[in-house]
Amino acid sequence: MSGIRTLIDLQDAMSKEFAWRKKELHSLKSLVIDNQNTHSLDMHIRAAVTLLYAHWEGFVKQTSRFYLEFVGRKRLRHEELSPNFLALAISRLVRTVGSGSKISPSLDVVEFFRSELPTRSRLAWESGVNTKSNLKSEVFREIVLVLGLDYSRFSTKEKLLDEKLLGNRNRIAHGQYLQVDFDEYIDLHDEMIGIMQDFYNQIDNSANRGTYRVP
């Protein structure tokens, strides 16, 4: 793809991204179900949990980057950006201000708001969002806020994300012989597909409604 410039480009990229991940995760779930009464059930569940996390992190990272590119390529003026994207655009300036006691970085921020608001924005979508290779709920919350989405819809899933998914994945990845109950895995799989779908829908709705820009 040459670039995500239109709503159709964004929807097409996200649809393909989600489709192949759901297909692979469904195949893994089917393998677990097929081996429910075999001695290799635990092995299949451990593999499925590990890949479920991998797809979760990859999906959030990729779809977030797609949306950032969609907004970034519009080259909206800073004053046209919604608060979350304006905050992203000036994040480097803000980090500089917070890293020391010198006044010059603060003056740069003042100058930005006095003279740069009417200029075209340059969102660094190429670097995407930082999942920190450890996508716990705290990191996910920051990503959701950066994109201007509604985190309240995910707040009740924090224990599931941190303990059932990430915690188990880390223990498995570090070589522990972890036994995950069959029903627990099935519930985890179904819950994660639902969370991914909700994240997908929120981005799609935000792009459709144009919430990335001020009215």
From the structure above, extract its key features.
215 residues; mainly alpha; 8 helices; 66% helix
Explain how this protein is built:
This protein is mainly α. The protein contains eight helices and no strands. It has helices at residues 7-34, 41-72, 83-89, 91-98, 104-116, 137-146, 158-173, 182-209. Helix 1 (7-34) packs antiparallel against helix 2, helix 2 crosses helix 7 (158-173) and helix 4 packs antiparallel against helix 5 (104-116). The two termini are 30 Å apart.
Question: TL;DR?
Answer:
With 215 residues, the chain is mainly α.
- Please report the distance between the alpha carbons of the first and last residues: 30 Å
Count of β-strands: 0
Structural class: mainly alpha
Quaternary structure state of the chains depicted:
single chain
Sheet of most strands: none
Shape: elongated
Order of helices and strands: HHHHHHHH
Strand content: under 5%
Number of helices: 8
Q: Give the proportion of residues in helices.
A: 55-70%
Radius of gyration over all CA atoms, rounded: 20 Å
Low-confidence stretches at least 5 residues in length (pLDDT < 50)? none
Mean pLDDT: 91
